[in-house]
Structures are given as C-alpha cells and as structure tokens.
Structure of GntR family transcriptional regulator:
Amino acid sequence: MNINPGQDKPIFIQIAEGIEDGILTGAFPEESQIPSITEFSVNYKINPATALKGINLLVDENIIYKKRGVGMFVAEGAVQKLRKKRQDQFYTNYISSLIDEARRLGISSEDVIAMIERGFSK
C-alpha cells in the first residue's frame, strides 16, 4: 500500500482504498485479520486518528468488522461487495464520461466497443 501525503486524495481515503485493494487481491482474505491502527500509523507515519478514520469507512460499509479486544477482520462477502462498489465507480468515473464524449464526437456504440476490444488485444 502506498500512502502519498502530497496527493489530492485525503490520507484516510488512501488507507481505506489500500485495504480495499488488499482485500480484492487476496492479501487480506475474508475472515482474516488486517493490521492494527497502531501498525498503520507507525508503518505509514500518520496520526492514529487518520488511520482509524480510514478503517471506520470500511466498518461502516460492512467490509471489515471489529472483534473487541482482538482487532479488525475482513467480513465474509467483502470481496463481492467491493467488486460491486468498484464496478459502479468504474461506470460512473470512466464509462459515463466515455459515452458522453463519444456522443459529442459522433462515435457509434459499435465503434466504441471496437476501440475497447482493440485496447484489450494489446
């Protein structure tokens, strides 16, 4: 996980997205423990409150859960929830604007699909 304080994105969001990436890649399997808030704050030289804020975003989404006195764990079904969330974000952030630009340029859906397929074949 890379934390970049110079990035426009807040550090707590970077922490949450880094954990999400770890879950999606299998670094943090479902029902496994994730690093503690202290570990995050020490390893990335950030305030523990910032690490907690990032982790709490995932707790609120039921991606991770707390076991009192033990730590934080990846919830069952977290991978599926995250894939759905990221697919929705992908559509909103990329596909929607791609379609808008294609319409402005008069590019047909068939041509857009052909362009995408060309990109995948590289």
